[in-house]
Design goal:
- The structure holds two protein chains of two kinds.
- Chain A is α/β, with parallel strands linked by helices.
- Chain A folds into two domains: 139 residues, Alpha-Beta Complex (Aspartate Aminotransferase, domain 1); 238 residues, 3-Layer(aba) Sandwich (Aspartate Aminotransferase, domain 2), CATH 3.40.640.
- Helices cover 44% and strands 13% of the residues of chain A.
- Chain A contains 14 helices and twelve strands.
- In chain A, the strands form three sheets. A seven-stranded mixed β-sheet of chain A has the order 2-8-7-6-5-3-4, sandwiched between helices.
- By secondary structure, chain B is of the alpha+beta class.
- Chain B is built from five helices and three strands.
- Chain B has a single domain, classed as Alpha-Beta Complex (Sufe protein. Chain: A), CATH 3.90.1010.
- The longest helix of chain B is centred in the C-terminal third of the chain and has 22 residues.
- Chain B starts with a helix and ends in a 24-residue tail after the last helix.
- Classes of the chains: A alpha/beta, B alpha+beta.
- Chains A and B meet through helix 9 and helix 14 of A and helix 1, strand 2, strand 3 and helix 2 of B.
Amino acid sequence: MRQVYLDNAATTMVHKEVVETMNKYYGNLFGNPSSIYDFGQTAKKAISSAREKIASVINANPDEVYFTGGGSESDNWAIKGVMTANRKKGNHIITTKIEHHAVLHTCEYLAKNGYEVTYLNVDSDGLISLKALEESIKDTTVMVSIMFANNEIGTIQPIKEIGDIAKRHGVLFHTDAVQAFGHVPIDVKEMNIDLLSASAHKIHGPKGVGMLYVRKGIKIDNLIHGGAQESKKRAGTENVPGICGFAKAAEMALETMNDKMASISVLRDKFLTEIPKKIENVKLNGHPTKRLPGNVNFSFEFIEGESLLLYLDMEGISASSGSACTSGSLDPSHVLMAIGLPHEIAHGSLRLSLSEFNTEEDVDYTIEKLIGVVHRLRQMSPLYIRRK
Amino acid sequence: MYTEKVMEHFRNPRNVGEIEDADGIGQVGNAKCGDIMKIFLKIDENDIITDVKFLTFGCGSAIASSSMATELIKGKHIDEAVALTNKAVIEALGGLPRVKVHCSVLAEQAVKSALFDYATKSGKVIAGIEDYQPDEDVHDHDDEQL
């Protein structure tokens, strides 16, 4: 049976070249970068080189890039570290209702410990209001944390405009760029980004490694205390294979970014135009154009997402949904709720996230199978049958 | 995540559809929570369930639970059908994940609701559901006990 992997926003296949790079540092070059002998220094040099490569993806200086254990750690560190280090300035943080849980739950934790959090609304396309952002900034505001692009609906925020507002008001701007890093152009200088989180495994790199960019001069407390690694900002022996694999993946992502943005968005747009033509009662979630090149998200009325995923899986198609049954909670995804979807429409959502490994045949195959699966589930649905 | 039996019933659900001239119809759940089950019963003069069909909006275990419940009551006397418990549905399915137990509760309630409808229409009293409240919210996710 054909296997079509369309869950690249969850994780991606690791590039062969990345595995080869990593194997070197699991093999002969296993030294500890903190060791002074030549063998350790080889590993240290590898990390320096990796830092340069990662920095070049976002136009940062290498000494502004700190390696972490992944996107969630980066988000935790950015928010907790900045809020506690700048406690004298204030206790207010502004974020949005559609952030990843790594940001939302960190903010909820801060709120329980004497901090004040403002959660900005988004419109039906998932965009924040710049006016609302500006109006919510007050004297006690320390930072704004707004994601670059949403993991579920793919909407890309007006990052440069947000950065300009933050700069104008003297507040720090952190962006969770886990879904955007290596996929779309990012320039931290031009966009006035002060802190940025990224993860390796969304760009065909390894799991368990990420980075936090921290603009030089920003006050941030440590999250992980211990040894002097990462300029004393993040303790723990460096994940040398992971870091080198991350850098290799980032290097490849940067080299091919323009071509991939073009080719992957062609596949995305085929989904976006064909699905509403071939299946009735569907709704596109996320912005029609300001969205990640690889993100497709539709709600199919009268059916539920988990059963949709299971039937697609039976056809060899791997996808994702924001239904309650797949989120492990009572409610459908907070993102779909925030863009104003009624519960029953949110339950029927399907996210397809593409990568460079997908082909037009994958798209055609998926649409064909989707038509059948949606029809089959609707024939079982009392909501659909009653309607007829 | 699911047992082979659940997947088998999900892949090939039994008794899907409607019965035009059903003697009893029961619907439980709501779209907000993400699952609705509707059960149609055809019942003969001896109170035997001769045919049963279902329509379900819901996740894999909701569909499998509906399918299994219809199998368990087909050909049975209404007194037997009314005694169907969610535990019996779970057992017949070889188990359900804890967070999905409410699907089996919904299946039990859908059957009872359809039987209550039959009892009301036919003027009969079925022991066990004399005081059945078809509109009662049976969909309490927080009170899930296996």
